[in-house]
Amino acid sequence: MTQPIAFIDLAAQRRRIAREIDAAIARVLDHGIFISGPEVAAFEVKLATFCGARFAVACGNGTDAMQLALMARDIGHGDAVIVPDFTFTATAEAVALVGGTPVFVDIQADFNVDVGQLEAGLRAAKNKGLKPRAVIAVDLFGLAADYDALNSFCDANGLLLIADAAQSFGAGLRGRKVGTLAPITTTSFFPAKPLGCYGDGGAILTDDADLVATLKSLRVHGQGTDKYDNVRIGVNSRLDTIQAAILMCKLDIFAHEIEARQAVAARYTRALANRVITPTIPDDAVSVWAQYTVRIPDGRRDEVAAKLKAAGIPTAIYYPKPLHQQTAYRHFPAAGSLAVSRRFSGEVLSLPMHPYLESATQEHIVKAIFDAT
Prior knowledge:
By secondary structure, this protein is α/β, with parallel strands linked by helices. It is built from eleven helices and twelve strands. The strands form three sheets. Strands 1-9-8-5-4-2-3 form a seven-stranded mixed beta sheet, sandwiched between helices. Strands 7-6-10 form a three-stranded antiparallel beta sheet, with no helix packed on it. A two-stranded antiparallel sheet has the order 11-12. Helix 4 links the parallel strand 2 (79-84) and strand 3 (101-105). 47% of the residues are buried.
């Protein structure tokens, strides 16, 4: 290969829609409403329509989206929120930022939360004198969690269910799209996400009109009838107008990009299924493949990653430590041994993945993996 291999090729996407994005940015520069401009409201409508939710509320980033959702439901001190142990820190961070306590539970083979561990999570919370209030399910690497089971558990136990769809917006499960699978869904538009902007951004999706009113107040310092009439303690978390304009351009091609991701993932799986542990997707699910993550057991992962790097193949490890082992989170309660999270953290390796990964480049990557393993 003569050209460096991109782990996520945002330049290829830009080449496809550069004219549209440049024109969208120019329109914002011309009208000059850089905060809460008309593109923000238009994007919210377009985003909700794409996934079938009634409402979308844009905000500053995906972490803020989760924090705003928790704030809107008055979750705070003395409250427990069950979260998977194997995820990015933002999931637990948002809980801690509102004063709540994250309670860690294990994951299952598809990298998503193990619903069978949630009861143990409730016990762990109650043993610490906490009131269980919510579950945050993370759709890791682009695959939706089992929301039928999650909704049933949360309904039976009086818990709020929040879908952390930072990696899964655009995915689907049993004929429904992410954004409609839980009462509240949060997502991120960080540039490396399947639907990403050119900076930070996030959103909350819901069918609850009252919740939307609260979220729109909270994202602007808790404002009431105007910005100098504050009716609650809020935050400053608004999606910039330019980012909304960019996201609308990207949303226009998003469905096609999701299809292209399926083809890239299928090529990897066909080529690597007998060489490493490849991800499996249920027949009734569509992953958006935020990452294509394989597992390399027996302590060989780091050696393989080093060989691939030497061969010019970029890889990433999401995540080298489960949350309960990280310094900032060691004092929070956990349910059970968290054995799967601990094992997977030593096995996972994410390969180059994006809609513009050409088959010839992918063949080169596969060959390098065969050579390294």
